[in-house]
Design brief:
4 helices; 6-stranded antiparallel β-sheet; alpha+beta; 3-stranded antiparallel β-sheet; Aminopeptidase; single chain
């Protein structure tokens, strides 16, 4: 079983596991995030790589979510070397005209195949259900992204439906609080 500790939602560090620290995103994270999402291989299952300006807007949006909801997407830091490992979290989403909360993960390519996406997403799922009182979470995944589909399955999420979201083919996975 994954051991994690949770810090009060107003604190910058949101949760920790033996391998990962989840904290709120900062404006100063722009260089690391922008470098990651500008890389074509990293963004293979997204419509396209993102610009620095888009990342700045995304960071501001997430920081506003913290104020509005107490949650959003969080920075993943590898505990061992304090390196940027990606981001993960929970965030509001309108999907097929319905309000949902998305469980999202995106691990930096240099940290792939280590189980970090599953570890971070599991912590985020628990936070969503037990700290923030959510009753349902969804993950939206490109149908060809087998690695993310495996993560969703490991989290106990089940495939719910396929649709086109933001012009892209998408498989929706869902899970409900026990």
């Amino acid at each position: 079983m994954l051991e994690s500790s949770v810090v009060a939602s107003g604190d910058e560090i949101v949760s920790e596991t033996p391998r990962l620290r989840l904290r709120r995103l900062r404006p100063s994270d722009i260089d690391e995030v922008a470098a990651m999402v500008a890389e074509p291989e990293q963004m293979r299952f997204y419509p396209r790589p993102k610009t620095r300006e888009e990342v700045a807007e995304w960071l501001a949006w997430n920081r506003a979510l913290y104020e509005e909801n107490g949650f959003g997407t969080w920075y993943l830091e590898a505990v061992l070397d304090q390196a940027f490992a990606g981001y993960c979290g929970i965030r509001p989403l309108v999907l097929d005209g319905e309000r949902e909360v998305e469980l999202a993960w995106h691990v930096k390519r240099t940290h792939w195949n280590r189980g970090l996406a599953t570890e971070a997403a599991l912590v985020s799922k628990r936070l969503g259900f037990y700290q923030f009182g959510l009753s349902r979470l969804v993950a939206i995944i490109h149908p060809d992204n087998r690695a993310s589909r495996r993560v969703a399955q490991k989290l106990g999420m089940t495939e719910e439906r396929s649709l086109i979201h933001d012009g892209e083919p998408t498989v929706v996975y869902a899970t409900a609080r026990d």
